[in-house]
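Forum: Protein Structure Q&A
Topic: Joint prediction for protein chains with partners

I've read a bunch of threads here and the consensus seems to be that you should model interacting components together rather than docking separate models afterwards. I'd like to see that in practice. Below is the full input, 833 residues plus whatever partners are listed. Could one of the regulars post the assembled result?
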Amino acid sequence: MKKLLALVLALAMVFALAACNKADSGSTTEAAATEGAGETKADTETKADTQAPAADDGNYPTLRLNMTSFTGEPPAHAQEVQDALNAKLIEKGAGAKIEFVWVGFADMRTQLNLLLTGGDDSLDILNSFWYAPIGELVANGQVAPLDDLLKSDGQDILKLYEPYQVVLDCGKVNGVMYGIPTFTAWSSPNIFLCYEAEAEGIEMKNVDTVDQMTEVLIKLKEKNPDKYFVPGATEPYWVPKGIDYLGDTNYCGVLMDCTKDTTVTNYYESEYFVNFLDNVKIWKEKEIISPDSMSNNNPTLMSFQNKITYGTTGYGYNMTNTIYEANMSQQYGANITGFEVGDRLLTTGNINTYLFHVTSFCKEKEAAMRVLNLLYTDAEIATIYTDGVLGVTYGINDEGQCCYVNGATDANSAGWSVGYAYANPNDFLTPTWDYQRKDAYELMQQDNANAIPSLALGFTCDLTPVADQAAACTNVIAQYYNPLMNGEVDIDEVLPQFQQALHDAGIDAIIAEKQKQLDEWLAAKK
Amino acid sequence: MKKKTTLKRVLRFWPLYLMLIPGTIYLIINNYIPLFGLVIAFKKVDYSVGILKSPWAGFSNFTYLFATKDAWIMFRNTIGYNIVFIILGNLLGLVTAIAMDTIKNKFFKNFSQVVILIPYLLSIIIVTYVVYAFLNPSNGFINNSILKPLGAKGVNWYNVPKPWPVILTIVHLWMSFGYSSILYYSTLIGIDKTYYEAAVVDGAGTWRQITHVTLPCMKGTIIILMILAIGRICYSDFGLFYQIPMHSGLLYSTTQTIDTFVFRALLEQNNIGRSSAAGLFQSVLGFILVVTANTVVSKLDKESALF
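Posted by a regular:
Agreed with the consensus. Here's the joint model:
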């Protein structure tokens, strides 16, 4: 009897464990794939596909690469694009295939966290755009050092970046390369956009300061008394692109005059910020900024598109091309116009927003680098990655530009996220689209050449030593920043409180730490 | 000798023990094996080498919780709100349950049970907008339909921290009283009706019946629910404190709790060590409080104590 009981117990245990194990791996696969069940299917198909040819033409490893899908579902032609890309990769000697892992935009962070904790489901190649800053990926040990890999299998990338060594250096943390910046437009000054009809008769030319922008805003308001031109919202409508904020979107410790001075200072006590808020006061008083900011959680361009406001501040790459594209595709329902505000700077923060990495879980790191090497430097492969399969997801018109085919009208109906994107490895190798200027990419490359590099270009700071203060400051900024920027509070009264709260939270320690690291970096550079 | 009797007992009731197995296994797998994860709170996690090989971090993952002078605000808010919620929530639930028991019309009784349960089932996002419809500064119900006709000036609710303890308490009670009253009601209908008959024979009115029959019979449930609630006193309803104030920074002095602080502090840092540290800290405090509360209860009345 006793033996029987023991047996039953043991059996029950085994079954329960097995069941649990099974359920576990099941849920991870599902999590690893995008939210939809359709993806899991695509996944298994891929596996079957890659295993079959592997038997006859050598045993190619399959590398997993994350792709972002806004809807959560992979695009309709994802499988065809993947097959085409793999055929080309093999043909060009990458010696590896890739498998797209579709991650829904809405829960991207969670999905990628799961895909970057080790284990068989891990990613091999990571596009970290929208996910996490490079410093964090390095601190968590999620990405692999690339210096040796670049030398052995990524020589074309090194050649591509030869004239822009300092840009490539933006993927370094503590002198070690961990990410490769995408080859794209690297600078994005502040801009102001508004509808052409509302701006009729008002001069729209590039200005240097926020004060000058306010003068234009006042004219716009006088002409259109019942319309707003700055979107007050829970999403920030202004990122100070005229300063180097050292990749820290909380702006704790920035270089205010980064082409001349390498002193890290407190942004929130700078003349620039105080003056900006003086402008906000004017916008509030004259009702230029939209009210009810608390209930508007649209990003700036959505507020603009939905006509909550008839103008918006922001930042953009090339004004000429932005306006051309928007008017060609009638993205905003009417013609728009606009101007740039302030200098066009080249800063680490702009560049290392878009990085590709080889993860530390990748077992075939050389193969991963060979794949990246082709994605960055081979026109055919870059075009498949960007525009998909000719005749299926895009066509080429008489002018040699890409156009939609098969009745598609946008990227969604085209079945692939076609078209130029800053997060793609190298879209300058691909043809332009019919809604773009033919010289769009030349314009962007000109901008790259004309942008003024910050003295700290290539420097990435590591906030781990002051993580407590950073956490505290993040909370203080979450508390005060938006109400101040949206003019929801009495600025004269709240700004000093905000500044004091930041001191209490330890902003000075963060500034000192950044200064220390920057000085060390500058000394090492010499 | 003793061992043998235990074994005999086990063998005698073996079908019962067999039935116990799945639950026990579930408990072990779901509740005990993950306890291993607590180690993360003391590690600087490096995914490339795994949790066990990651370097130890001592208590450094905990320090950020106490880094600012304002840290006490979130502790005060978390515990203060919970005390108010426990007292008022249980009181309201109890009163509602007793009131529901006195309803004689069966249809109306069922109807009211469903109606008071609805807020509990609503998504917090919907509740947020219900509250927003009341409090919107320019066209909300309170400013527009109550204060304006009275000639009072509208209040910019999302900018003034002072009224929020009251607002959040009302919202919480509105959301939760249906659920807690049903818990009480289920105990209430289990009370032997002959007690009431005896009380009526002895000349007790409704009030006397409540104080002398209903409440003493419900004492056990009340205490258990209280002790369980105390165990979660360091946790806050994240949705309530994060969504309902519409993330308005100006309200932090009355709406910031440990959970919202941790969420905001770590949103930009993918640091599981620190989030585990916060969770562990909350659990340990909760555990201490439960044991303390239970000891106090068992000192006062051994029968009602949880363990």
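The two ends of chain A are 81 Å apart (CA to CA).
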